[in-house]
Amino acid sequence: MRQPPEHLSALIEPIIVGLGYECVGIDYSPHPKHGLLRIYIDSENGILVEDCTKVSHQISGVLDVEDPIKDEYQLEVSSPGADRPFFKVSQFERFIGSKVAVHLYKSIAGRRKITAEIVGVQGDVILLKDADQVFEIPFDAMSKARLMPEYLI
Hints:
Blueprint: H1 6-18, E1 22-29, E2 35-42, H2 49-66, E3 73-78, H3 89-94, E4 99-108, E5 111-122, E6 125-130, E7 133-138, E8 142-147
Parallel strand pairs: 2-3
Antiparallel strand pairs: 1-2, 4-5, 4-8, 5-6, 6-7
């Protein structure tokens, strides 16, 4: 899974936790003119626009002072939403029994995208079940993963 530079995580995560939120993940896409720093936050009570504004204001101030990103970028603070992205192995553990869509860097069993139920986690290996087949996917083999929300009709 693509991770942000360590210095960004070390700078940003303590601010989010200090404000009383969970840092779900940080997605940094560098580009000389159109970079994007997207930060996903969550809390037991959910996330409102006011929460995103509060976190954005605090992080923006620290980023202005510390200046860890030399190129131009846009800062976004967002809730993870119903189709939340996964950034850590612990997030897979938290959602065992749920469906997830996983994109892989290289094919496993002839597939680069797997949509399946999370049935377990063994160290850094995620176990996904699709029909009668269980895939053992190393966390490092995933380029991205998202929860597949279940909507009731």
